[in-house]
Amino acid sequence: MGASFEEKSVWIQLVGMTLGLGAYFFVAGRMLLSGVTAMPAYAAVFMVATALMVVFLVAGHLVAALASRPEGRDERDRLIEWKSESGSSWILAVGVLGAVTGMCFSVSIVWIANALLVSLFLSEIAGYVLRLAYYRRGM
After folding, report:
1. pLDDT tens digit string along 39-88?
2. CA–CA distance from 62 to each of 52, 68, 78, 132 (Å)?
3. In angstroms, rounded to a whole number, what is the distance separating the alpha carbons of residues 20 and 107?
4. Which 3 state secondary structure label does DSSP give 139?
């Protein structure tokens, strides 16, 4: 049995987010190490990475929809999404607490913003990986 449209969608989102935000973090990391502290510079890079990610996601979902007709979400899909979000949300919580701690110690806003983005990114990636594991394992 082939992958459902929902599972294909998760793969598309995982690859798209990894490529788009992975590229952002590569560029942002180099900027941070070079001493760039102006937020507008990071915002511009983030907007470009986000736009490229959206283009990839739209194209990927269009191809997936043309290749196999979306059958609609069922109770299993909702349960898988809930369990994966439940299992990955702690990463975001730890990142937010770390960023708040950084603010208490007057860490630069550029570092705080990127720490928040990293925690959101890692939480989403973990959620996608868990969803794929639940689809493959069966639920």
Report:
1. 999 999 999 999 999 999 999 999 998 888 777 778 888 999 999 999 99
2. 15, 10, 22, 20
3. 26
4. coil
